[in-house]
Design brief:
single chain, alpha+beta, PmbA/TldD fold, six-stranded antiparallel sheet, five-stranded mixed β-barrel, 9 helices, 38% strand
């Protein structure tokens, strides 16, 4: 196992970034920014007890952006030696000199840059050797396969761990770095009963290895999820309530976030164009951004431009409070950055109409519980939504039988407004934390 990257790497990366900024200034750039990173990790996969892959990751990189007035040029390299840094800055400068001026280009407003860097507890290395990781992957897969004789095959048990350091700096005097870790265990199994074959998975991901679910629990959960899909049927075409499992509800809300990002707004490529101040969700629902959650998978004290991240309400009482902006998109829209260059930082769903998973099933009564989506049938401009789906048909508030080979369809604007309740079964393994989401109705296309 390669030694985990630690805080000692920050000083090395700061020196690289500072050198790049100095080179840019000496080359005549009016402004410049640079990112440097180091990453190391280990990934193993075991299939049917045999080692399938062992991968050691060692990555490094530098990206440089220079501005000559409002003309911009960028270049990157995986070589952090001084001569490579100089060459990368020279390439970025050459590009900028052949680029048209853009009045919205430039660094973030100096007043927006982070000056206080909170400690977010993002660094917890897992000093595990390849042999130990293989044993855990085997344990995970074996626990799943042992659950039932119908579990005939496997796509493998996997264990991965990684650590990294990243430094961002710019010619306004910002120069800060962070270390972080990420670890995961997963398992995918295949069940067969006569001619019926089904697959499913489960996983756990965390900043801290001790916060991962146990390999045996992950294997057993993968087994349960796979077995319950045996005997799947199709449905006739109909319209009914739909309940999204938490890991899929995250994707539903991800489509909303994509629609309110700055680029989608200024390119006029959003079904929620100019929707700030509008009711886009039911009045019982809030979406809040909390960038400073300890050990959060999307936590950060500053964004990709060095702008300080802050708690904010993205949706309050169902009303869209603003957009998701970096400096460039904010200028294009005549607004201020929201500290979201590079993405969102822990979106949490708050709802006054909630219930456990079982309570949401009872509330739905009869409908479709979706556990898998296929395809990319989401039109970001119109909001039209149509995706292949699998899951379970629900009758009298309880799961009746598994379903596959159907399509669910609707329009995202209407779907978001028709949310009936949000589950308390929150999945925190991503940048959006939500429980199951129950929609009033969607079209189901089947037989």
């Amino acid at each position: 196992m390669p030694q985990p990257i630690d805080a000692s790497s920050i000083s090395e990366l700061k020196a690289v970034v500072a050198s790049a900024l100095t080179e840019a200034k000496q080359g005549g750039a009016s402004q410049a920014e640079a990112d440097a990173s180091l990453q190391r990790g280990l990934s193993v996969t075991v299939r049917l007890g045999e080692v399938e892959t062992i991968e050691f990751h060692r990555d490094r990189g530098l990206s440089v952006t220079v501005y000559f007035g409002t003309a911009k040029g960028s270049a990157s390299t995986a070589d952090l030696r001084p001569e490579a840094v100089r060459e990368t800055v020279a390439k970025a400068s050459a590009i900028a000199k052949h680029t048209s001026a853009d009045p919205y280009a430039g660094l973030a407003d100096p007043a927006e840059l982070a000056t206080r860097i909170p400690q977010l507890d993002l660094y917890h290395p897992w000093e595990i050797e390849a042999e130990q990781a293989i044993d855990l992957a085997r344990e995970c897969e074996a626990a799943g396969l042992a659950c039932d004789a119908r579990l005939k095959n496997s796509e493998g048990g996997s264990v991965s761990t990684g650590s990294g350091a990243r430094v961002h700096g710019n010619s306004l005097g910002f120069l800060e770095g962070l270390t972080s870790t990420s670890h995961s265990v997963s398992c995918t199994l295949v069940a067969q009963e006569r001619d019926d074959m089904q697959r499913d998975y489960w996983y756990s991901i965390s900043r801290h290895p001790s916060a991962l679910e146990s390999p045996k629990a992950i294997g057993r959960r993968a087994a349960q999820r796979t077995l319950r899909r045996l005997g799947a049927r199709q449905l006739s075409t109909r319209r009914s309530p739909v309940l999204f499992a938490p890991e899929l509800a995250r994707g539903l809300l991800g489509s909303f976030v994509a629609a309110v990002r700055g680029p989608a707004q200024y390119r006029r490529a959003s079904f929620l164009l100019n929707a700030a101040g509008e009711q886009v969700f039911p009045s019982f629902l809030n979406l809040v951004e909390r960038p400073h959650l300890l050990q959060g998978l999307a936590s950060s004290p500053y964004d990709a431009e060095g702008v300080a991240t802050r708690d904010r309400d993205l949706v309050r009482d169902g009303v869209l409070q603003g957009y998701v902006l970096g400096s460039y998109s904010a200028r294009k829209l005549g607004l201020k950055t929201t500290g979201n260059a590079g993405g969102i930082h822990n979106i949490l769903v708050e709802a006054r109409q909630t219930g456990s998973f079982d309570e949401l099933l009872r509330r739905m009564g009869t409908g479709f519980f979706v556990t898998e989506l296929m395809g990319e049938g989401v039109n970001a401009v119109t909001g039209d939504y149509s995706r292949g789906a699998s899951g379970f048909w629900v009758e009298n508030g309880a799961i009746a039988y598994p379903v596959h080979e159907i399509t669910i369809a609707g329009n995202l604007r209407e779907m978001l407004r028709s949310i009936v309740a949000v589950g308390t079964d929150v999945d925190a393994q991503g940048a959006i934390r939500t429980g199951s989401i129950l929609l009033e109705a969607m079209t189901i296309a089947g037989e």
